[in-house]
Amino acid sequence: MVKRVYTWAYSKRVELVVFGAMGGLYFFTNFQRVAVPGTVFDKIQSDLNVSASAVTAFAAVFLYVYAGMQFFVGTGAERFGPGKMFLVGGFFLSAGSVLFPLSPSLVSLYLSRALVGLGASFMYVSLVKATVNMFEARHFAPLLGVVIVMGYSGGLAATAPLERLVARFGWRTAFLAAGIICSAVYLFVAALLRRTGEARREVRAMSVASVKEFFRTRAIYPILVCGPINFAMYYVLQVAVGKKILEDCCGFSSRAAANVTFAMLFTVIAGSLAGGFLPRLVGNRRRPFVIAASIGVVAGTSVLVGAMIFKGGAAWFVAGYMILAATNMPALIGTPLFKEISPSNTSGFAIGVLNGTTYFVVALACNAAGRVMDAFKDAVTVTQAGVKIYPPAAYLWMFIGMAALALVSLAASLSAPETRGEQRVAQAEKEP
Questions:
Q1: Is residue 131 in some structural domain?
Q2: 411 with 298: CB under 8 angstroms?
Q3: 158 and 258 in contact (C-beta within 8 Å)?
Q4: What is the pTM of this model?
Q5: Domain span holding position 352
Q6: Which of 200, 236, 318, 343 is the right S-S partner for 426, CB 3.0 to 4.6 Å?
Q7: CATH number at residue 228
Q8: How many CB atoms lie within 10 A of CB 288?
Q9: Reduced to 3 states, what is the DSSP secondary structure of residue 382?
Q10: Are 391 and 374 in contact (CB under 8 A)?
């Protein structure tokens, strides 16, 4: 009996170490996603002498590859096991992270960003699937919060801390250092997964019938509408144009604007820690949080529209940013809800579909933001340092579009289902 308890405790400690190590590599996924172009928008634009849409395309190319791969990664995690998929992704992530700062041309920079996006696409779904495999279902929501915190910590490092490094050493040197550290972490994780056997663990493959059953589940579609929109309205500011807007409209210095995006991510991290436990306080309910997230997005985008129309001060912009960041706390509940309303034997695939749809919408939002800015290129002011300052009208139309999408999200969220934490069972599993 004592030996059995000891073996169980040792197994759980090993799983926690594996979980933490995988989270350490996932850190660099969010670092890369937030850093380019959000923190270095002006540096890249002036260094390469390109348009706003060319700069936002650095985010878009990453996100399109990332989003498109989610559907395949989710299936692969079911078929080959999350450990193997995580190692494949980590290799490409590390390689792309090193190649990006060494790329001499715009085309090669885009290609290296696509490689980073390819590697990053394996990380989240594989880590979530590994969490499902290693821990009991009742721990999933809190552990998902921990996963998001580990990832967003990378994004946090890509705001104010990275801005200071770039200001001192240049963006290429700063990114090369990050790529080398990422590669070292990858080698450690690879050795750990192989030693513990997590890289060799396989799970049951999904059938075509399971996939059909998943897409026939009508309850998933409200979440597939409101979830991606809510996240995109916050994330396009975090990873693409939020820092630039503060610099152009509010006269913020690069350092001050980076501090605001740092505060946004810090708010998201704090909310993620709390968000995993909130449903337990209200009888494990999910639906109220989904609706609350959409209401928050409407409020945040409305504040930004109002700040532009009525020429509000910098405090109004910061308030709008922080409201959008705070919506991620209730929005976090959308992922466990989506997993619970999907057939139980499609968990990895379901998370992949939701994640892929989310980042596809984010990529579209980044492209749209760049095109709106380019539409006002004739009104751009160029500083002596070569920095392009865009007129307030460009950002007003951007915020109006965001507010309109927020209303669509709110309408969809009202149709969100309620599970109270109970997992839907696949049809095939019900049959004798």
A1: yes
A2: no
A3: no
A4: 0.81
A5: 10-422
A6: 343
A7: 1.20.1250.20
A8: 15
A9: strand
A10: no
C-alpha pair distances (Å), 85 with each of 1, 51, 78, 193: 36, 36, 10, 11
Q: What is the dihedral of CA 295, 301, 303, 306, to 10 degrees?
A: -130
- Which token pair is 295? 């209401």
Position 318, amino acid: V
Instruction: Verify cis geometry, omega within 30 degrees of 0, for the bond prior to 101.
Output: no
Structural domain includes residue 427:
no
What's the pLDDT tens digit per position in 300-355? 999 999 999 998 889 999 999 999 999 887 667 788 888 888 887 777 788 888 98
Whether residue 3 lies inside any domain: the answer is: no
CB 134 within 8 A of CB 140: no
Please count the other Cβ atoms lying within 10 Å of the Cβ belonging to residue 115: 21
Q: Coil, strand or helix: which one is 381?
A: strand
Instruction: Write out the two tokens for 155.
Output: 């994004």
The C-alpha atoms of residue 387 and residue 346 are separated, in whole angstroms, by 48
Residues 103, 393 contacting (CB under 8 angstroms): no
Query: Do residues 147 and 131 touch, judged by C-beta distance below 8 A?
Result: yes
The least confident of 81-85, 139-143, 156-160 is 139-143
Say whether pLDDT at 90 is over 90. yes
Q: For 48-63, how does the pLDDT look when each residue is reduced to its tens digit (9 = 90+)?
A: 999 999 999 998 899 8
Which amino acid makes up residue 272? S
Domain total of the chain: 1
Q: Does residue 237 belong to any structural domain of this protein? A: yes
Burial of 321 by CB count in 10 Å (0-12 exposed, 13-18 middle, 19+ buried)? buried
Closest CA to 365 of 405, 318, 408, 412: 405
Those residues with Cβ within 8 angstroms of residue 271's Cβ, 6 or more apart along the chain or in another chain: 325, 326, 328, 329, 332
Scanning 135-207, the segments in alpha helix (DSSP H) are 140-157, 160-169, 171-196
Alpha helices for 81-105 (secondary structure H) = 82-102
